[in-house]
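Got a spare moment? Tell me how you read both lines of this record:
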Amino acid sequence: MKLLSYKWKMVLVVLIMILSALLFVACGVQSKELDKEQTVDQSKGQSAVSSNDEDGVQLGKDESVLEIDETTEDLESLFTNPVAEISGGNIYMDITETGEYMLQINDQSYTYNWTGMTPRGILPSMALEDFDRDGQDELAVILYVGSGTGISISELHMLEINQVGDVQQVYEYLYQPDQYISELQEKASIRLFEQASLLKGELAFGENSFEVDLQDLQAPDYGTINDTLIWGNITEFSVEDQQLIGTFGVAVGAEKIVSPIYIGKLNTVISYKDGEFTMSQYEFEEYENK
């Protein structure tokens, strides 16, 4: 009986050892699985943080682009190849991928839905001068907006730049075509007459008058020449000697000709004040070939 008891004790010990071994193995496997899961979770956590960090930086970049107030370094990266600039004035112009015009003025950027860059590829131009003589410079922006047979048109935009404390305010004024055409129609006229059987014209621009030879238009193909001047198809703006200059093609109509017949060009000085433009100092240049 004692021997039997001893055998059972040995069996019980063996069983306990086997169960302990199995339990040890099971715990080891579970520990490895937990370690693996923790490693994966940690990896996911790092990836999520990195992604959030990247999203945060990207969002910050997007917000900085949308803000008007840009840092100088950000703007320099945007205006690496400007289409126009004022040397030393910290003023640059570029065209975005969507065709909008972006201006950097004194470390701030502004976007405008202007028209320009016609197929002829004439670049915009800018000039910074005190055009209204108020002691503060204005920015004149000239854009080439139309081209074709007998058509060459540019636009004049005037930007008032006001600094109020740390805030820069920019106001835009466009010299509207209907405004300068109406002014030209009001101040300019032509009187047709014959001298020694040759057709001539007396042009009056305000108080200035000029005589033009129109004998080339005395041909059956033209028919009767009209005594009304035609404006608007040729318009150019420029800045010379700190003055705004407007150059307008001078044309007349003929009975049998559909297109305007250009007989010369009119140069004028354009004054600017409080968002308004006016002309003065008219000079006419006659075309030799009409």
